[in-house]
């Protein structure tokens, strides 16, 4: 019944949109297209609304009550940290000698998700008092948002350059990505809403979040450098139609007289046969330059994010002689004690 309720709601939304489009055409041109009837569409909208209300009333009486007291096993301790570490290893191993754009696309999307999850975890740490609010607001949050946007931007480029026939990703990389997504969802999602700071603290060790995010930002910079190296690989290929479109756009943007540019297939960057079949072709110079610029911006954003999170998880409590935690931040007393010079050896600038 819940499936019927969700399906009827989707149909109701689609029919309502179709009705608004017909009413807009009627208001603009005074008539609706042939074989279209406003009366029938309005009747269908009323029927779907009635069915949705009926199914919703049944679901509201049974579905929420059945979930009351549902048992959920607590998340495994260390699952998130292990998933992130496995992803770091697998992504480097797969991408170090691969120019497959589908793998690069999956890596970019997963890394953007990891940064978004790290930002959410840091908000929970701020609420718990483990991260300074000013530092998070002024440095960490803006840097993480920019780095995530750079990953999403380069992911859109890989999505355009990936032919439909080359969408299969590496199995090991896909498994590692799925485990990261599941581990993040287990902590950050509570039912149908985002987890609060209290729920995060129940599902993971909130004390270790700053250290984990620091490791994530370090691995993020390494992966950004790896993607930048792959972008400069001359073996990089892309879908012929996307390559042609990007090349024409780049030439129009760089040319002072775009009117004289010939967009015919015979003057295209790729051959008409490749355009027709949308084969994977080598990237021309103009397209490669756009990809390299995007990867360079990604490296800069990842470096800024790592710099902003350099102090995460590095402050440790020190004990005074009485056994109480010291509020002093810095080197221990033994490391700051001056070592006396030996008297049996001559000192500097001493002549004897």
Q: How does this model look, in words?
A:
It is a single chain. This protein is mainly alpha-helical. It has helices at 2-29, 38-66, 79-95, 101-128, 133-161, 171-188, 197-203, 209-231, 240-254, 272-277, 285-308, 333-336, and strands at 189-190, 193-194, 237-239, 280-282, 318-319, 325-326. The chain has 3 domains: 2-66; 79-234 and 285-308; 237-282, no CATH class. A hairpin with a 5-residue loop joins β5 and β6. It starts with a helix and ends in a 16-residue tail after the last helix. The relative contact order is 0.10.
Structural class: mainly alpha
Number of domains: 3
**Percent of residues in β-strands:** under 5%
Helix/strand order: HHHHHHEEHHEHHEHEEH
Tally the helices: 12
Work out the radius of gyration: 29 Å
Q: What general outline do the C-alpha atoms trace? A: flat
The low-pLDDT segments are: 315-343
Give the quaternary arrangement of the chains.
single chain
Span of the ends, CA to CA: 99 Å
Helix percent reads 55-70%
Region (Disordered): 314-352
């Amino acid at each position: 019944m819940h499936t019927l309720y969700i399906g009827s709601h989707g149909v109701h939304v689609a029919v309502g949109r179709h009705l608004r489009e017909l009413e807009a055409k009627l208001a603009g041109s005074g008539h609706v297209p042939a074989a279209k009837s406003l009366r029938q569409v309005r009747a269908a909208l009323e029927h779907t609304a009635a069915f949705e209300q009926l199914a919703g009333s049944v679901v509201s009486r049974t579905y929420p009550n059945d979930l009351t007291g549902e048992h959920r096993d607590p998340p495994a301790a260390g699952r998130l940290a292990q998933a992130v570490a496995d992803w770091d290893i697998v992504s480097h191993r797969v991408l170090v000698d691969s120019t497959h754009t589908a793998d690069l696309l999956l890596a970019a999307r997963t890394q953007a998700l990891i940064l978004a999850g790290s930002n959410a975890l840091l908000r929970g740490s701020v609420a718990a008092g483990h991260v300074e609010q000013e530092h998070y607001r002024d440095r960490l949050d803006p840097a993480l948002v920019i780095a995530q946007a750079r990953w999403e931007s380069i992911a859109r480029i890989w999505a355009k350059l990936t032919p439909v026939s080359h969408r299969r990703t590496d199995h090991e990389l896909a498994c590692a990505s799925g485990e990261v997504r599941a581990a993040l969802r287990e902590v950050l999602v509570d039912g149908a809403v985002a987890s609060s700071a209290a729920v995060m603290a129940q599902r993971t060790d909130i004390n270790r979040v700053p250290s984990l995010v620091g490791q994530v930002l370090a691995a993020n910079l390494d992966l950004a450098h790896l993607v930048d190296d792959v972008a400069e690989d001359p073996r990089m290929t892309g879908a012929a139609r996307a390559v042609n479109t990007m090349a024409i756009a780049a030439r129009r943007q760089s040319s002072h007289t775009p009117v004289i540019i010939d967009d015919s297939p015979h003057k295209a960057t790729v051959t008409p046969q490749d355009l027709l079949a949308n084969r994977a072709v080598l990237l021309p110079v103009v397209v490669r330059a756009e990809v390299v610029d995007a990867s360079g911006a990604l490296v800069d954003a990842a470096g800024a994010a790592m710099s902003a999170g350099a102090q995460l998880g590095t402050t440790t409590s020190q004990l005074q002689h009485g056994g109480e935690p010291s509020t002093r931040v810095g080197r221990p007393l033994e490391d700051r004690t001056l070592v006396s010079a030996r008297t049996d050896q001559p000192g500097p600038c001493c002549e004897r």
